[in-house]
Amino acid sequence: EKPITINTLRRMKADGEKFITVSLYDAPMAAMAQKTGVEVLLVGDSLGMTVLGFDSTVPVTMEQMIYHVEAVRRGNNKSLIMGDMPFMTYGTPTQALENATRIMQAGAHMVKLEGGAWLADTVEMLSERGIPVCAHLGLTPQYVNKLGGFRVQGRDDTQAEAILNDAKLLDQCGADLLVLECVPSELAKRITAAVSMPTIGIGAGRDCDAQVLVINDILGLTEQPPKFSKNFLVEAGDIPGALRKYAADVKSGIFPAEEHTFS
Ligand code: KIV
Ligand code: NA
After folding, report:
1. What is the ipTM of this complex?
2. Mean confidence (pLDDT) of the chain
């Protein structure tokens, strides 16, 4: 089977076919995702909270990210693997280049960075040197201390315009994907239409080109699950079934439903 590349994802956006992303952290889950046909695996720094017990993603280190990217890579040779760059490992373009190189060499095909216009030079630099970048806008969890909590972003017009402009700028700078987290559905829809890169939504409505959920939320492991997530294990009965149901419901437009979105 041919591996998924950024070209596959671009083609799917053009064809209006939704692709599936799961944030997961280990080899067996990565293998199961491959069997299910999940197009993109995100080794998210959410692992700080979902696996390591921290109360934010701020403490996550390069070593922890690399350890988990390697594990996911060993379990999967088909999906596109994206690795998060941890908090303050991409503060400058040079620092980003060094750390992104390590994540790529651990087995990722792309890195993900949180932030807007200030990342323009960094995205351009990585992109020009062969490191695809996924941007991440809206609720950017590494900013939790600056945002004053995990809250929906882009609800007022000024903020919404700022997010839209950041998305357009990073698109022009060569970003290949964009995660939109916890923004009103209407805004996510506008951004998805305005940029050439595919968008991946989480709490961003059904009009993104793709959806992402964290494996812990899909499997009901989260004590206080976020509004935008869904436990697919309840209906499906087993883990492979839960992944299949999530994928099928995204492809057919059943998930996310109104109850999982913000206005
Ligand atoms: O770390 C993560 O899992 C993420 C997704 C929630 C987008 O960044
Ligand atoms: Na993340």
Report:
1. 0.99
2. 98
All domains in the chain, ordered by first residue: 6-260 (3.20.20.60)
Contact 21, 200 (CB under 8 A): yes
Q: Which residue CA neighbors atom 2 of ligand 1 most closely?
A: 44
Task: Look at residue 1 in the predicted model and tell me its pLDDT.
Answer: 77
Question: 167 Cβ partners below 8 Å, 6+ apart?
Answer: 135, 137, 178, 180, 191, 194, 195
> Which protein residue has the closest C-alpha to ligand 1 atom 8?
44
Give the model confidence (pLDDT) of 71-115 as tens digits: 999 999 999 999 999 999 999 999 999 999 999 999 999 999 999
Reported in sequence order, the residue ranges of 98-198 that DSSP labels E, i.e. its strands, are: 110-114, 133-138, 177-181
Binding pocket residue ranges, ligand 1, CB within 6 Å: 23, 42, 44-46, 84, 179, 181, 202, 212, 214
> How far, in Å, is the centroid of ligand 2 from the Cα of 257?
23
Dist CA 115 CA 233 (whole Å): 33
